[in-house]
Structure formats: structure tokens, C-alpha cells
Amino acid sequence: MTKLNVLIVDDEPLALRLLKSKLSKIEGIEVIGECKNGREAIKATLDLSPDLIFLDIQMPGINGLEVVKKLQSDVVPLIIFTTAYEQYALDAFDVHAVDYILKPLDDERIQRAIERAKQRMQASTDLQQKPKILGAINSIVEKEIWGEDEQRIKDINGGPNGNLSKKVVVKDRDEITILKQENIEWIDAAGDYVCLHSEGKTHIKRSTLKELLDDLDDAFFKRIHRSTIVNLNFIERVIPHTKGEFFLELMGNERIKVSRNYRETIKDFLASN
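User: That's the sequence. What structure does it adopt?
Assistant: C-alpha cells below.
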């Protein structure tokens, strides 16, 4: 029988206790951690490597969707969203193979979601959860910009000869956000999307990591993982991990993993400073 190590996240203590009680009655489930906010959830996911997270969407500060955006693709486990509100278009998550449960939590619905998670684990070791979740998020909130807005993007970049290397343009619903490269702390790739982490916010852009790399200043932006780029200016600490890997702690206490294949990049950076 497949055993699932589970992390539960909710800002309401009563909801945490109720969910833990219900999960304790289900065979093959071990609750390895409880978090009361998004920041705790990110840290616990990195430290504990859970197979599955029951993740509340509505939380103060970093909400459930932002937790997923802030995690590197390879550390995002199976996600079961929990919420008291139907207006989040939860059927979109279901279509994208991400489960959800409406509050108040129902025993039968929890059991069905867990069985679905177990089947998914048995079917594949490469879950690719983050691309699915980001696809779901964007199918809910993204409004494509055409016509005049496309011209606005050209104008922002100075026309066909604009200097794209100094800024990154992000279309988000009916707005266009211009990010200065110097303010981008790190970038996480997820399928056909990239997540740009800047000044405490996460911006989702439809692009591959390779496409974005061509526009970034390679003096400061370095690849440290097959799915991650870091701005060297934001590194504050280097923390050893296992098997030749280590974490980088950035300003704002973000932690991202450096894989063995890219560790020389950080060693060269440390040696030059």
C-alpha cells in the first residue's frame, strides 16, 4: 500500500485540528507537519519533502496559490486545495488534475481525494505538478491582451529595437507589469510558464526558461538548477544540503536549491567575492 507523508496548511487552528483528526483515521496517511501560514508551508515543504499537501487557499500574507508559485517545480508535491468559497472556479483545478475540497470538510470527499493522490503517485514518479497548477491558475485569472495592448508592449520596449535586456514585460489579466531586471530575485520555470519573484511578489509569464535567459543580463543571472535562475546580487547565505546540493538563502528569507550539476556556478561566484 502506498503511504503518503502529508503536510496540512490552514490559518485557522480549529480547521487544522479537524483535518488532522480526520486524516488520522485513514490508513496509509502520516501527517508529518502542520502550518498556519504560507511562509511556514514553504519552509516545511523544503525541509520535510511531503508527498501531499492539504493547502488552504485563503490565508493572510502568502495565500495557497502563492505558496505553489514560490516553490521550485521539482519540490512541489501533490496538492489538494481546501477552501470555503466556490468562486475560485475550482472545477478548473479539477480539469488540470489538481484536487480540491470545499469546507466544511467531508470524510468521503477527503477519502476520494486521497485515493486519487495515491493513484497519481503510483502512476508516475515525475508528477510535474507545478505546470498543471499554474495552468489552472492562469485559466482562472488570465485575460489575454490583444490589439492596442500589444502596441503598448512594443512602445514600452522602444519598438522592434527596444532594449529588452533591461526589463521584463509581464501580462497579467488586463494589466501590463514592467519588471526591472535589477529587482528580480530569482526565476522558477514550470512548463510553458516562468515565475518571476520580485520585491515580495510572484509574477507569472508565459515563456520558457531558455527564452527568458536570452533577455537577461548573464553577468548577474545564473542558472543553478534545470528549472531555476538566481540573481547573484540577492544571495545572502549558502547552506549545505545533501549529496553535493545546497540551498541559497536570499534577501527576504527565500530559500532555493542548487543542484549538483550547477554548483560550480556558485563556487565561482563565492571565489570571486
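The radius of gyration is 20 Å.
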